[in-house]
Structure formats: C-alpha cells, structure tokens
C-alpha cells in the first residue's frame, strides 16, 4: 500500500468519511443519553439494549467512513481495491434507498395518504426534512466515492487498473 494521489479525485471519499463520522458521533451521543430533540427514540436514561444498538450503529457508520478513506489509498492488489469499491457501492445503494424509501413513506404519512401514529406527526417532519435527506446524501457520497474508486488513478494508472 502506498499513499494517496491527492487532488480532487478523492473529494467524494473525504466527504463520505466526514458524513459517516458525524453520523457515528451522533449515535455515540445518543448512546450516552444525549438529546437533540429531533428523534423520537432519544432518552436521557437509555436502556442497555439502546446503548448497544447505538454503539453498534456508530461502529457500522464509522466503518463505512473508514472504507471510504481506505479506498483513497493506492493498493497494489486489485482485489483490495475492488473489494473496497464493492463495499462503497453496496453501502451507497443501501443508504440511498433507505433514505429515499423513508422520504417517500414519511411524506405520504404527512400528506395523509398513509396512516401515522397519533400525536407523532411532528416527528415525521424531522424525518422528511432532516434524517431521510441525510441518508440520501450519504448514499450519494458513497456512490460517488465508489465511482471514483473505479476510475484510473491520477498517477497514470492504465485502464486495466479499474475496479474489477
């Protein structure tokens, strides 16, 4: 493994890393009783299962960010580069679809087309305006990083060095 080539080529990777670390930090904050007032599951006295779920989510989200960062490295083995790009593709699709389905579903609840929980209407606004778009943004960044991971490097790597 060698250092990165730098430049704009890795901008989506860096933005995906920041997105993932911010999201992971929020899960750690929630795990230890932090409250933002923007999520219905927040509690100042979290149950052990809630703590573990949030810490697990933080590890998963942070791991996605690390994968984006690792994909900026110049790996000599094609299988490593391809594996990292594949993880970016998978996580990007999952995040984008999760956000898109949430956005549509929650908007349908707000529009009165789908039934929603009594007294929980204001939470749907947080999902439509904050959480669902954040998932879509992360998916888009991860997919952009995956696309860039499959391109030839700035160092003049031949087309044979593509993702697969």
The helical percent reads 55-70%
General form: globular
**What count of helical segments does DSSP give?**
4
Radius of gyration: 19 Å
List the secondary-structure elements in sequence, H or E: HHHH
What profile does the largest beta sheet have? none
- The termini sit apart by 18 Å
Mean pLDDT: 88
Secondary-structure-based class equals mainly alpha
Low-pLDDT stretches: 156-164
Percentage of β-strand residues = under 5%
- Oligomer kind: single chain
Kindly state the number of beta strands: 0
Structural notes for this entry:
- The protein is mainly alpha-helical.
- The protein is built from 4 helices and no strands.
- The chain has helices spanning 11-31, 48-70, 78-110, 121-149.
- Helix 1 packs antiparallel against helix 4.
- It starts with 10 loop residues before the first helix and ends in a 15-residue tail after the last helix.
What's the helix and strand layout?
Layout: H1 11-31, H2 48-70, H3 78-110, H4 121-149
Helix pairs in contact: 1-2, 1-4, 2-3, 3-4
Short description:
The protein has 164 residues and is mostly helical. It has helices at 11-31, 48-70, 78-110, 121-149. It is built from four helices and no strands.
Features:
164 residues, mainly alpha, 4 helices, disordered C terminus
């Amino acid at each position: 493994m060698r250092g990165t080539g730098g430049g704009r080529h890795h901008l989506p990777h860096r933005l995906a890393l920041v997105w993932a670390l911010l999201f992971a930090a929020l899960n750690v904050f929630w795990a230890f009783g932090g409250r933002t007032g923007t999520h219905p599951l927040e509690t100042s006295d979290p149950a052990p299962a809630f703590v573990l779920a949030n810490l697990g989510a933080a590890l998963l989200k942070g791991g996605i960010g690390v994968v984006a960062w690792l994909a900026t490295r110049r790996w000599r083995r094609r299988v490593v580069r391809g594996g990292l790009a594949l993880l970016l593709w998978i996580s990007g699709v999952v995040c984008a679809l999760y956000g898109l389905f949430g956005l549509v579903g929650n908007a349908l609840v707000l529009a009165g087309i789908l039934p929603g929980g009594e007294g929980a209407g204001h939470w749907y606004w947080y999902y439509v305006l904050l959480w669902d778009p954040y998932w879509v943004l992360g998916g888009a960044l991860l997919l952009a990083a995956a696309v860039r991971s499959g391109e030839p490097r700035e160092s003049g790597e031949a087309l044979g060095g593509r993702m697969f």
